[in-house]
Design brief:
The complex is a heterodimer of chains A (about 575) and B (about 160). Chain A is α/β, with parallel strands linked by helices and about 575 residues long. Chain A has three domains: about 170 residues, Rossmann fold (3-Layer(aba) Sandwich), CATH 3.40.50.970; about 170 residues, TPP-binding domain (Rossmann fold, 3-Layer(aba) Sandwich), CATH 3.40.50.1220; about 170 residues, Rossmann fold, CATH 3.40.50. Chain A contains 23 helices and 22 strands. In chain A, the strands form five sheets. Chain A has a six-stranded parallel β-sheet with strand order 3-2-4-5-7-6, sandwiched between helices. In chain A, strands 15-14-16-17-19-18 form a six-stranded parallel β-sheet, with helices on both faces. In chain A, helix 12 runs parallel beside helix 15. The longest helix of chain A has 17 residues. Chain A is globular, with a radius of gyration of 24 Å. The relative contact order of chain A is 0.11. Chain B is α+β, with helices and mostly antiparallel strands and about 160 residues long. Chain B folds into two domains: about 80 residues, Alpha-Beta Plaits, CATH 3.30.70; about 70 residues, Alpha-Beta Plaits (2-Layer Sandwich). Helices cover about 30% and strands about 40% of the residues of chain B. Chain B has four helices and nine strands. In chain B, strands 5, 6, 7, 8 and 9 form a five-stranded antiparallel β-sheet that branches. Chain B has a four-stranded antiparallel β-sheet with strand order 2-3-1-4, with helices on one face. The longest helix of chain B has 13 residues. The radius of gyration of chain B is 19 Å and the shape is elongated. Chain B starts with a strand and ends with a strand. Classes of the chains: A alpha/beta (about 575), B alpha+beta (about 160). At the A-B interface, loops of A face helix 1 and helix 2 of B. Bound molecules: flavin-adenine dinucleotide, thiamine diphosphate and magnesium ion. The site of flavin-adenine dinucleotide has 36 residues of chain A, from helix 11 and helix 14.
Amino acid sequence: MKMKGTQVLIECLKAEGVDVMFGYPGGSVIDIYDELYKSKFNHILVRHEQAAVHAADGYARATGKVGVALATSGPGATNTVTGIATANMDSIPIVVFTGQVPTHLIGNDAFQECDITGITRPCSKHNYLVRNPDELANTIHEAFHIARSGRPGPVLVDLPKNVIAAEIDYDPAKIKINATKLSLQPKPSSKKYVQLLEMLRAAKRPMLMTGGGILLGKATDELRAFARRAKLPVTSTLMGLGAFPGSDPLFLGMPGMHGTYFANMAISHCDLLICIGARFDDRVTGKIDTFASNAQIIHIDVDPSSINKNIVVDLPIVSDAKSALENINRLLKDNNYTATEAERKDWLDLIESWKKKAPLSYCQDGKIIKPQCVIETLYEVTKGKAIITTEVGQNQMWAAQFYKYDDPNTFISSGGLGTMGYGFPAALGVKLAFPDRIVVDVAGDGSIQMNIQEMATAMQYNIPVKIVLLNNGYLGMVRQWQELFYEKRYSNTDMTFQPDFLKVAEAYGWEAFRATTPDEIRPVLEKGLFSNRPCLMDFQVAREECVYPMVRPGASISEMTLGTREMTN
Amino acid sequence: MENKKENVISLLVNNKPDVLARVAGTLGGKGYNIETLCVDVTINPDVSKIILTTIGTKATVQKIEAQLARLIDVIKVENLTDVETVKRELALIRMALTADSKSELIRTINKLNCKILTFNSDHCVLEYRGTKCEVDKVLETLKPLGIDDVARTGIAALERKN
Ligand SMILES: Cc1cc2nc3c(=O)[nH]c(=O)nc-3n(C[C@H](O)[C@H](O)[C@H](O)COP(=O)(O)OP(=O)(O)OC[C@H]3O[C@@H](n4cnc5c(N)ncnc54)[C@H](O)[C@@H]3O)c2cc1C
Ligand SMILES: Cc1ncc(C[n+]2csc(CCOP(=O)(O)OP(=O)(O)O)c2C)c(N)n1
Ligand SMILES: [Mg+2]
């Protein structure tokens, strides 16, 4: 069938099951926008292309599907770069389409020309410049396939204006994806699992460390079954929160720089660490030499390049998390293996004593709101059922520490790149996917100003997300480092001038409330969270509160500062 | 610390415009230097072969290989360092000639097994083929006789399979 390139694009998107796209128009994509109009395709007009990519990314994290964004050539394309790099660091499946000048002008410094495939080469999983109209359909499908397969990631497709304007002979039956390499599932030998079981049987203090790979691989149920059968305490990286229930007694919280005392102590004292879908990031390991130095380490990861990258392990298993866990669970069943209370008692008692010694804590006294108290109350008021996105900084760490995530994909945060301005547009994508859930962006006063313009998008499309602003008037996380490591020289972290956030929100037509004392926390949340309108809640919190525990950069994770107390063991 | 040594990596890649940039970027972006590089299409016109050498410890080079294998357009990664291979490099060497140096040069050229490609009153261009080590040695020998410029192909390597 003959049709225009733009129509082919829409047909391909439909075939991929895309039900929403986030974007911003311009000259080189105006034909695509015309087609969107004619086909009534569901498109959300954001106010900045970076937000389009974050929204697609939030949508992808919440649903497990591929998120889609669209931008024009030149500045539109360059504005997507932070979003693409954010998705790349956290292995999130998205496809970003950008306009490009006609093929005969490429390389001529044409108006709004920019080598976006060159720019995004090191920060995307893959990218394409489509030069030949006949390759358009194949390329689009290949892009989706690559985005979602193996270790997922962002793929950019650059579309020259003449390619999308061309008449193309389109036959969906003839689509051929040239990525056989990606379809191969790694199949580790069954001996590896037998060895895993032997190591598990021999271990006195075994534990699990899980990460984003469990969520990406949709292996939550299998993980829970394994952990419970083998009675293994579980710590989860920031990216993996929600895979194992936050309220489960076996859960230890997050490890690493701002991890819990007991998770870091457990890692430092365990004799077997089974790591699944986590990449031993430096925020997690602290000083490499002393990380889990008493343990044998098993590492299961779908990407061979993650294994032995930062930590040399004893038993590497290259596999998708779900199929690995299925294999392990089957093996445990076939061997009638269930850990007994007695065999775990000493280890779990030891962990319990660490939990008692130094639980996550803060001191809510006086008339000033403690940010941790806002998050704890948010947890209570939403009964743990909200989907939380975060900005970056202290707000992000408190959201990770003081809200308990019982379900997968309910904590959505930029971990690897740490992109301020991520949480709010991501929340828009999440809310579109789950209109019946309460979706809250836990924000800082610095971060929220990086994409605050999206308040307009929320109004235009009636996307009632909520912003819980932990307003400390500082770039708090940087200020914390200046307090602790730079003798309180607060260089350029004091945001002395602030807009009146209530008025900003109201100017966009949002609801807005403010809490200045602890007794106002709950009423403000109750007023703001349950209405059917977008709402900003401005919590004026203690300005110089720090996130604890903290492992100093370069220190071992067993050496933590717990505020006033130093804890070492 | 583990010893650093030269590693020969052979890649089969899709024959597309930006593939070399991806490969080079993967190494350069992570701070690894490419010492030599040799690229050409294979007998299958859709596939190119890239042979590169880089210096590093075993652990680092394994990381590089894993990173390269991740690239969508890389079909196969092979480390030929410890494999039985034939390795060759070709060098073109232009010598500046003077009346005094000519006869000495001709004697040396004969001894070294260099091929003379062009020869006139001011310059001559020589061809030498051998292992990287041999090429290095030849250049060392010719240096005092007045090397004007050199072009080297980089190492080509092929498994022997005996
Ligand atoms: C201010 C700040 C502070 C931070 N502090 C901490 C901290 O204290 N503690 C902490 O944990 N993090 C912290 N982080 C986050 C940290 O930077 C990393 O993003 C995070 O630790 C990485 O999580 P991960 O190891 O689970 O890897 P991810 O980035 O989620 O990577 C997933 C891994 O799983 C693999 N994978 C993907 N799909 C599959 C599959 N299907 N099957 C198997 N494997 C798969 C991938 O190959 C990859 O190796 C902080 C971030 C910021 C911005
Ligand atoms: C785009 C971007 N620029 C700079 C940083 C460095 N940075 C990390 S946390 C932080 C402070 C964030 O301030 P705020 O949003 O107010 O959050 P708080 O830490 O106060 O909760 C900064 C500047 C970053 N992560 N992202
Ligand atoms: Mg702040």
